Amino acid sequence: MLARAARRHRPPSKSLQFSFPELLSRRICPIQTRCITTAASRSRSILGDHLRLRHSGAAGARQDTRPLATAAEVLTPSPDPIPFLYRPNAQSPSYSPYPSKSNLRQWDASQVLMLQDSAMNPPQAVWNFLGVGADVPELFQNLHACLRVGRYERAGNLVKRIQETFHPSAPEVIEAHNMCLRAMVEDLEDHEDTRPRDILAVQKWFERDLKPSVPPNADTFALMCRAALTVQSGLRRDRTLRRYLSMAKAAGLFEDTLASEELEDSEAHTLERVYQGLSADRLLIGDDPAPAAGAPSTLTSHRLATGKDVQVKSVDQKGEGLRTVVKSLYYLDNPEAVPFPHDEALTNKEKEKKWTRLRQEAIEESVVKEALMQWRVENEHMLDMGISPALKSKTMTALLWQWHKALEPAVKEELKAVKEALAKPRQGGGEENSHRLRYGPYLEALPAEHISAITVIEAMKFLATQGAASGAKLVSVTSKIGKALDSESRLRARQKNNSKTRSGRRQSVARNMTGLTRQTSVDAGMSVRPSLESDLAHRLVDVEKEEWPTEVKTQVAALLMSKLLDVAKFTVDKSDGDTTEPQIEHAFRHETVYKNGRRNGMVHIHPEIVEKLKREPLRGILGARLPMVAEPKAWTGFKDGGYFHYPSNLVRQKESSDTQKLYTIAAIEKGDMDQVFQGLNVLGTVPWRINQNVFNVMLEAWNSGEEIAKIAPDNPEIPYPPEPEDPTDRDARKAWLQRVSVINNERSGLHSQRCFQNFQMEIARAYLHEVFYCPHNLDFRGRVYPIPPYLNHMGADNARGLLIFANGKELGHTGLKWLKIHLANVFGFDKASLEDRENFAIKHMDDITDSVSNPLSGNRWWLKAEDPWQCLATCFELKNALNSENPEKFVSHLPIHQDGTCNGLQHYAALGGDSLGARQVNLEPGDKPADIYTAVAELVKEHIAKDAEAKNPMARKLVGKLTRKVVKQTVMTNVYGVTFVGARAQVHKQLDEIIPDDGDPALDNYKLSAYIAHKIFASLDTLFTGAQNIQRWLGHCAARISTAITQEQLELMVKKETGETDDYGPKMSTKIKKFVRKGKGINGAGKLLSDHFRSCVVWTTPLKMPVVQPYRTTRVRQIRTTMQDIALREPQLNDPVAKRKQLQGFPPNFIHSLDATHMMLSAIKCSELGLTFSSVHDSFWTHAADIPVMNRVLRDAFVRMHSEDIIGRLAAEFKARYKKSIYLTHVYARSPVGKAIKKLRASKPAEQNMRAINSKASMKELLEEHKRQKLLRSKDPEERKKGEAMVTAASIFQAAGDAEAFEPPMSLGNSEEQGDAAAAADEAGQSDEALDMEASASDIDEAVDSESKEPSEGGAKTSKPTKQFKTEPKIPLWVPLTFPDVPAKGDFDVTRLRDSQYFFS
């Protein structure tokens, strides 16, 4: 099958394309069209190689004509910037209709991706019957689990449940049928002996259960054709195929059937030939014959050099802890363990690629297997030494094996009970059997041995790290075990699917075929669905159908934990004073404790086990993902990319961020994520190697056990203080104990650090002679991260120093200069001019030579660097280049970094057009690099000097004492939304180091830090006026969005109010509704109106990636388990938003999304130009020779981004996305507007009690305002007149344009509050604002009369928080959602940064 897959991926014959152009018509030859479009996505690597050769050749031509450049010449601006804008109307002979992925696509407000609120409503509830129900996603999850274990009868019942829930034409129904057909067809392919019987079952399902009531889709027809191809032959097969294909043709699905991902290319070709009446044995035109099986290969040897013989000194610890790493690296140390496919009918290149992939798959699959082997070997070793299981001296690893072998029979008994329960689901058996009916199909998918091992691994791993001292919450332990079992189950399912080598082509085919027309097919209505036939909620179900439901994970994990508590025992010595005898005791105990009024279940480890863990720490990389020895799988879907078998999400997310998942899936299907995919694939396919020179030095330093270059010492010399002489001096003894505790913590921290570095050394040793790759994914903002956690280029200095590019490039005429500059940068001499940095390297050439020749026995100059290991790597590279015959021809592998200057402020300065700020962050050209931290420090000093002249005591104390370091952290984090409290704490920490406490409480460091924090913010306002205005504008927008109720929500409220619908849907019986209503606050008056605040802040990056802030308030759900009731946070799409987090998180997250866009654009363009590119957020890496080209790319990408009106576009998107919404605001109760609103409410008895947003009066007023807005928007003039005649709180609010109308009386107000009101009133004249929104957002919580409290695990509730009052009362009201005007932009011209050599340097 792998051979067929390899042949299938060869590109189509060019002779076929050019000799028979008429065959390329999609109507005439859809197969060839599919091959071309599929091959197009693979042609990138070929094009990349061509570009690299072309670029390399061009560089070579220049090398013969130019001498070495000076530092001033290194960044000579190019008169011809690299184009980032795709112009479809460009008249050029080389014009291509396919735009480059590095071009920003034109943005159109009418094409904003929006999800219907219905997609974010809770899934339709289904009656829980015989262990199946809860909601639609769980039905699909249970269906998938049943099909995996062959329970077709139960699967059929589930399909009937789904069919009863939805309309027959709904995509959920046909998908359920297709899942069953797919499972049955795969059984046909796997079990030849039962095919005659099984094919009848497949045909019966199609003809009787599906076709009469459910319209088949293309995948259905493809599956039926697969079944016929598998079982039948000759004329009978051809007749069957023609029948299904004719049915597909009649349904208009013929081409889609042939393009279905259910078929391999060879099968699709066969179908087309059969349909056209051709011979099935005809040779396809353009198929290159593969070498015959057994043909000799020219690739004679595949015994790679390894680091197997390199000895890395292990951290001194008992047992097999570290050896887990070594075992996991077995296939790296022993490449011959994976046989090379010499005899396969493949080309040499295909054999090499297949072998590399097989090795990678072996590495991914060895984790649990090697852990079990490790435990068994350790246990046998102890038995060989005469140490029996009854003896206390057993190692920790041997105990794990003992517990695993004791737990395994208990798991087998449970699986037997599950099988009996599923066989007779109606026989009763109480709650225990009810649970088994629910989790049974999931548990059956895993072997007992793996279930037992994973339970022991995860329980010990969590308890040893999180609960060794005081125990861990049962809910936390079960969560870890449940997630691990779920992950293992999905991994095994993926391995099974991959073994069938089915190609997933349909999505890429559809995307390629409609890529140019799809972007204009979105209605102006703005609310779009991800595909023509799928609802978004169904697409989420499709992605999550392999996952275990939360309740199943919790129940299974609690069951296994209870069994582990029973069987995990060990020997402990018990003394009765005179004698000591060994006794068997339980290793864990479970108890219920009360903390802060809550009842919590806790799991504790036996104190003797805790002591054993201190001596034998459980260290390992079980479950961790290693770098890949084969190129990562290209990203094509939300879960499709990166590792071959391990399921990885495209977007790293919290469990509560299903909205982000929905938006991402929709964007993928719409084709908006293509550039993001391309950027991730560029970064993931960068080949790396271990720098052997640095590794040799690091190995020597490591094995010495000394503390060298941030390598933790083996035996840290931290002496303990002497014990106090007077044992009765309690204060002295207390101080001594505290000091001893600090030393113990420090020693423990160093030991943990050395253990972590031990893993890095072992991994580096294993990969010493390998080329490897780091697959990447991203967070919800679009920031990119490598998936392998231990050794990657985003690690600490020691990890970065070990890594070099696998592919080198000649230094050329500029590379040597950049090597020297890079040396100065990593040493810490990075604030000087480029020329000075170059001279720094020249000046220290003797030190460089000594560092290379005698790194540990010489003068150790490299150890003085800020990044010593990266400095040493540069020393080696520079020395080797200078010692070569021609430095220009020296092939360099070292990544050279270009770092931004406070990158967040660079984006803010460009957005706000701040000329002063732009100069301080190097957006303006300059002779030397500007330093924003020094600039702010100088401004703060000026403010302090003026205050000192005015006799300010704080200023007088601070004169001459302020340093750059005091302000640096606050300036750095200002762009990320640091609050005043946070800034004060940052400054306070620095002041404690430079100003000793003199005992004056009026001028202590706490008060001084608050004074300085104010001055820092004032200085930033001076430098970045426009940026600060934008930051505030972003906060105002987030505050309004997070208190908004959308039009669809409002329409649903109206229907509930009139009795047209309820929360449950039309299919639910009264019995089911009563069952669901057992939960608190589900519908009507029981639901808090504040719970309707579900609008997250959503925006679209310039790369068209949707970003959804994940901050929601998750409710707690009680789950019954065998051990106790567990209170678990189960996130739902309709959870109310966390208002304060939405407000505070938006400004920094928005800037993060912009710097991620800049990096992605740069990565794609560099790849197109043939450059190797990697990044650490705002630090971009490439070869020394390519730095000038990369710098042009970075500047042009930034200019291209900020040449657009990013904030104006965001404002337009907000207006479109939240159109017709109504949000909550407040006004001062004693202001003229407030009095008018109170008077209006007094005239309406039903509304006069609207003192809180959760009152019935508030609901009535909200719906009344919704009605008024509908009338005002009506096309009927009479209805518009009715709307204009209505008087509501919002109409009063909107009619008041005078700032004084929003101010409270002077006697009760204060100037600061009135200033806020006046400023807001200016906005109200244009829109609807009456107060500062940050203050208003905080008032929302204070206005809530009765927030629902989260129950504890035992059901106890917390006490009600103390209500806070403000001196000037405010009243809430509902007004139409509008947004403040975009702040005016300054006069800075962003194109000037093209001439700034220090923008990135």
Automatic annotation (TrEMBL):
UniProt biased composition (Basic residues): 492-505
Listed InterPro entries: DNA-dir_RNA_pol_helix_hairp_sf (IPR024075), DNA-dir_Rpol_C_phage-type (IPR046950), DNA-dir_Rpol_phage-type (IPR002092), DNA/RNA_pol_sf (IPR043502), RNA_POL_N_sf (IPR037159), RPOL_N (IPR029262)
Compositional bias annotation for Basic and acidic residues: 1265-1284
Keywords on record: DNA-directed RNA polymerase, Nucleotidyltransferase, Transcription, Transferase, Transit peptide
The DNA-directed RNA polymerase N-terminal domain, residue ranges: 358-685
Documented EC number(s): 2.7.7.6
PROSITE patterns: RNA_POL_PHAGE_1, RNA_POL_PHAGE_2
SUPFAM superfamilies assigned to the protein according to its UniProt record, in alphabetical order: DNA/RNA polymerases
Pfam families cross-referenced by the UniProt entry: RNA_pol (PF00940), RPOL_N (PF14700)
GO biological process: mitochondrial transcription
Catalytic activity of the protein: RNA(n) + a ribonucleoside 5'-triphosphate = RNA(n+1) + diphosphate
A GO CC annotation given for this chain: mitochondrial DNA-directed RNA polymerase complex
Enzyme class: transferase
An example molecular function term from Gene Ontology annotations: mitochondrial promoter sequence-specific DNA binding
Biased composition (Polar residues): 509-522
Function: DNA-dependent RNA polymerase catalyzes the transcription of DNA into RNA using the four ribonucleoside triphosphates as substrates.
Record family assignment: Belongs to the phage and mitochondrial RNA polymerase family.
Record protein name field: DNA-directed RNA polymerase
